[in-house]
Automatic annotation (TrEMBL):
Residues 417-445 are annotated as: Disordered. Residues 426-436 have a biased composition (Basic and acidic residues). This is Tyrosine-protein kinase EpsD. GO terms for molecular function: non-membrane spanning protein tyrosine kinase activity. It comes from Rhodococcus aetherivorans. The keyword Membrane applies.
Amino acid sequence: MTLPEFLDAIRLRWKIFLTAFLGCVGLGVILGLVQPTGYVSTVRLLVSAQGTTTATSYENLQVESGRADTYVALLTSEVVAQRVVDDLGLAKSARELSTGVNATIVPQTTVIDVEVTGDSPEQARLLADTLAREFVEYSAALETPTGSDDQRVRTTVVSSASPPIRQMPTPVNFGLLGAFAGLVAGATAVWVRSRTDPLVRIPSDAAAASGLPVLGSVPSGGAGSTANTESYRSLRTRLLTAERREGTGGQVWQVTSPDPRCDTAGVVALLGRTLTAGGSRVLIVDADLRGAHLDETYGLGPGLAEVLTGVARVDHVVQRIDNGLLDALSAGIDTDDSIDLLPTGAMAELVDALRADYAFVVIGTPAVAPVSDAAAVSRYTDGVLVVVTEGTTRRRDLNRAVECLHTVGARLMGVVVRTNRKGPRRGKDGAQKSDETSTSTKHRR
């Protein structure tokens, strides 16, 4: 999933993202509020070594620096904390005490600042002084050689425990941590939902379910919609730049879908109209012999069924549409034998004949899932466009449809995603109407 696709997924599922984000922020603030108030007191220690000559002083400086680094780790260890616990008879453990100790070296010196946290000002100051005293004794024992009274490295208290400072309220800090965690949690929740959602909701869902490129997204508005016009122009460009088949004649493309609820007839009609740009002759064919769609749109009569049965010639039933460059061939009269006409030699011969007369032929077929018509027609075409509808097409159906078309050797060009944005248009009476083509299946005469 690319970054733009992921951002689209977040825009679509913003409620999931926002819920996860606010939940983590709220949890962080609550954790900050329940944290006990602490007080910090600081004690300063100095690490020094014996030496008089210049050479010895330089050597001692190296020793002091090394010791200071070591002492920082020892000051925050449980060993020293246990000495403080034993001295003061504290109820808390050495581990609990050590978590409230922080030691840092003042830059360019061998001075160590030790911060100790207590539950009250008095306790913080007492703990800091006791820790400093116990550490001086502890380090002296470490630095004094066995059987000798000579101690080369010394640790001394430069300043006793400072007046305790109340720790800053932590809700803000915890809230910021919660916000960061919320971004991660929200993004993860959106990603998981995108992968488990059974429906195709954005183009990346269609690409993931089908394994095919998304050729374009087209609104469900009519030809008068600016968004629709630009969308189909982009789709036309993608198709024209695709690898062309070998041989002469026009290109024949098939438009189908994974389920009958998708309006492939509207896509066929608008794609055909867009392909006429530049003066190309285009034919749109309704190959849904089980239920007419193009005749509902254009009011056409006999067509493909009659041509395949030899009852009529193709040039007698083709209807001229719009600007004279777009022709339409309806499905024809419904008969009981119509569904057996597509996987025949007559259909193959018709497609070859149409190549010679048209630059582009766009054939709309029934959905792949319920019947085999789409798979039968795909053998005669140069490419198949699979149309899906946002929020309607199921990923499982799309995957099965693609597998079915792959099985018969269809050349799958990609997926076209129909969005749910509708563009209004004006009818003959001037009233504003929805231009989305009806997807109902009417029984023909």
